[in-house]
Amino acid sequence: MFESLFNNVCENIKKKNGIEVQLSKELSQFHSRDSKCVINNWLYELPDFRKWRITKLDGGDKLQVFNTVAYPSFKSEIPILGVDILWFGNSQKLLAVLDYQPLIQDKDYVDKYCSSLKILKNRFSKFDNTKMKNIYDSNQYFSPWVMICRGNKSNLEIDLDNIFRLFLDKYLEIKFKTQENQFLNFDQIKKSQKDYDIYSSERDPAEKLFKSFFGEIWTRDFIKNFLFTLS
Ligand code: BLA
Questions:
Q1: What residues contact 179, with CB distance under 8 A and at least 6 apart?
Q2: Residue 55: CB within 6 Å of ligand 1?
């Protein structure tokens, strides 16, 4: 599932001269002990991005996940691109979260770098949800226009493809248009990205899920050496 989103990211990464970074065999693909679930991971480096990671989890009819995060190089203050899309087969529910994750909450910063999400939200009303449960703090590393969709996937597939394409195109335009930093210097950017990884690794609701499917040892390696390498 989510193959078209995956293909879209890969095409964009290729266009931007991304180079695939070889992962260990166990990180690139791993099966759960009962073989009902498989996780695949990809890692890229691009001229303007120090790390772009993609994860697909295939748990058959029960669970499907597509997750991707783009970390700009420490030279650029632009937000981190964050996408977490999950399909829960038992309840037939989709959860999609897409955001340009701001490094700081300064109003001028979020206006400059995140407000193009407003236009997208207006066009796709089903994604016009900003309410989160209390797993994450919506005032830390989320923009005021974070797009959240909870719904039944069968009638959302086309919208999801379209919104994702625009979301990615507009994000890559931010980088293209930003010649100079206005809010943060190299050291501040580096610290914010490190804090993002620490914060995310502490809050990630998926850790329990990974441990139950793939065991403690693999999960520790996955979090430290793939998901949140600066944590
Ligand atoms: C929620 N993400 C979740 C949940 C799970 C995952 C299990 C809880 C779902 C529930 O409410 O029942 C799963 N997260 C994963 C998996 C990976 C992962 C499998 O990272 C694999 C790599 N999460 C992100 C990123 C964002 C993000 C980059 O990883 C930013 C866009 C957001 N996920 C996010 C948010 C919620 C969530 C905001 C909570 C939604 C809510 O409050 O209801």
A1: none
A2: yes
Which residues are 58's β-sheet partners? Answer: 38, 64
* Ligand 1 center to 206 CA (angstroms): 7
How remote is the CA of residue 165 from the centroid of ligand 1, in Å?
Answer: 20
Distance 115 CA to ligand 1 centre (A): 22
Mutate to test the pocket of ligand 1, among 2, 84, 171 (most ligand atoms within 8 A of CB): 84
pTM of the model: 0.95
Which region, left, alpha or beta, applies to residue 60 given φ > 0 means left and ψ of -120 to 50 means alpha?
left
pLDDT mean by block of 10 residues, the chain; 231 residues = 95 96 96 93 96 97 96 97 95 93 97 94 81 78 92 78 95 87 97 96 91 95 95 87
Both tokens of 85, joined, read: 């899309």
- State whether residue 71 is helix, strand or coil: strand
Distance CA 122, CA 108 (A): 21
